[in-house]
Fold this sequence. Notes:
Elements: E1 2-9, H1 13-24, E2 29-32, E3 48-50, H2 55-59, H3 66-80, H4 90-109, E4 114-118, E5 129-132, H5 136-149, E6 152-154, E7 157-165, E8 168-176, E9 184-196, H6 205-211, E10 220-221, H7 230-237, E11 242-243, E12 248-252, H8 256-259, E13 263-265, H9 279-287, E14 295-299, H10 300-305, H11 307-310, E15 318-320, H12 323-329, H13 334-350, E16 375-379, E17 382-387, E18 390-391, E19 398-400, E20 406-412, H14 430-447
Parallel strand pairs: 1-2, 1-9, 2-6, 9-20, 10-17
Antiparallel strand pairs: 3-5, 4-5, 7-8, 8-9, 11-18, 12-17, 13-14, 14-16, 15-16, 19-20
Bound molecules: flavin-adenine dinucleotide (FAD).
The site of flavin-adenine dinucleotide (FAD) has 40 residues, from helix 1, strand 7, strand 17 and helix 14.
Amino acid sequence: xxxxxxxxxxxxxxxxxxxxxxxxxxxxxxxxxxxxxxxxxxxxxxxxxxxxxxxxxxxxxxxxxxxxxxxxxxxxxxxxxxxxxxxxxxxxxxxxxxxxxxxxxxxxxxxxxxxxxxxxxxxxxxxxxxxxxxxxxxxxxxxxxxxxxxxxxxxxxxxxxxxxxxxxxxxxxxxxxxxxxxxxxxxxxxxxxxxxxxxxxxxxxxxxxxxxxxxxxxxxxxxxxxxxxxxxxxxxxxxxxxxxxxxxxxxxxxxxxxxxxxxxxxxxxxxxxxxxxxxxxxxxxxxxxxxxxxxxxxxxxxxxxxxxxxxxxxxxxxxxxxxxxxxxxxxxxxxxxxxxxxxxxxxxxxxxxxxxxxxxxxxxxxxxxxxxxxxxxxxxxxxxxxxxxxxxxxxxxxxxxxxxxxxxxxxxxxxxxxxxxxxxxxxxxxxxxxxxxxxxxxxxxxxxxxxxxxxxxxxxxxxxxxxxxxxxxxxxxxxxxxxx
Length: 484
Ligand SMILES: Cc1cc2nc3c(=O)[nH]c(=O)nc-3n(C[C@H](O)[C@H](O)[C@H](O)COP(=O)(O)OP(=O)(O)OC[C@H]3O[C@@H](n4cnc5c(N)ncnc54)[C@H](O)[C@@H]3O)c2cc1C
């Protein structure tokens, strides 16, 4: 069995950053990826990254701080609490915000380019959503960097088991799919640690069946299909403490870059929500429409320039030569649809920054009206894009077990962790936090982790006394115990 210092399982942003930082810390690294390319879901994403205190923000005279970010995070958590209690890892969230500017520097040094900062005032009081010029750049830039750094990468390979020695993760067993033939099995040793970076579990029927609401288990899946929660399963087999597993963000499928040029209408032909607003609000907005149906409307100019994004939509576009004909095709009121489009175009022409109908602030680049025939309708489809639950970890990203002890030699990053993604509704936090966590994990795996667990584990549970528990305890396990 070939031996490495660190084995990284999964080549999304978390795994890529982990592999790079582990080598830079002096380790010999193997990265194992299920697919034949690197980048994971980030390559299929819209590429919005929330980072705090970056050079791009300074360039645009945006003053931002970790404290401001945390205040926005807290506001988001209070909203999420309406969906039920959860565990928010405030400490890890703050660490992400603090380290994110260094991640920005690292990305730009690798040649990754950001095109703009987006204003999202309902989620972020300061402009901190950094738009990647091309989301595919991330995987490509890391692939080149890992090659330069001498990281060995095994593609088309699924890690199926962890190898353990006296309670320590010391390697992995895997299956490689060759061209045509049956899978080849193998194993590799990791002297310093295994980093689980397998993303979420949205591609696993069994995990969805256990954790997702009944009506959504068979729902449309957007993104790569290889995120089947194997990291969750492998870590659970070592006693890892999985938190927030029932939180799965339902979304309306549309790449944000396409949503910028679209409006959505219901059967009456009216707009009913901010098409670029919070994911949860979009889902609620659609559910409240007659028949729970709606369509995005775009024109020929957008169809032409964003055809690759249109192709990622769950259903093919419906085309019609006029707005009236389109209304007929999607069974909505033609006169109202015409008025809705006219109102939208009038708003764009006016130059105001906030749409008076829905409060929308993300406006098309160049404020292009819906004018060029033919017109297209894209049915709004609810889907699962990523999951929120995963392991409780230390600040070194070491997995913590259900007894509250760090698991020797085992680390987790990105969507395989569970304490940060509950702020997902802010938008743009998944990729950036995965990158930050990867850097931390790679370094700690090589140097040896020293951080202690900071969340309470099931085995350390406090006795339940409903009357004395302040509300905060439901979601903030960093809060000191109340005086009794
Ligand atoms: C359409 C879409 C748009 C999105 N837009 C945004 C956005 O704008 N901003 C944002 O922050 N987030 C966005 N996301 C979410 C974001 O892409 C993910 O949350 C993020 O990529 C998670 O990073 P990760 O490294 O944890 O895992 P992933 O990127 O999910 O990568 C995990 C990798 O692990 C591999 N893997 C899984 N199991 C195994 C195994 N057993 N063995 C080997 N390899 C394995 C997978 O093939 C995959 O490549 C979007 C997602 C989608 C689908």
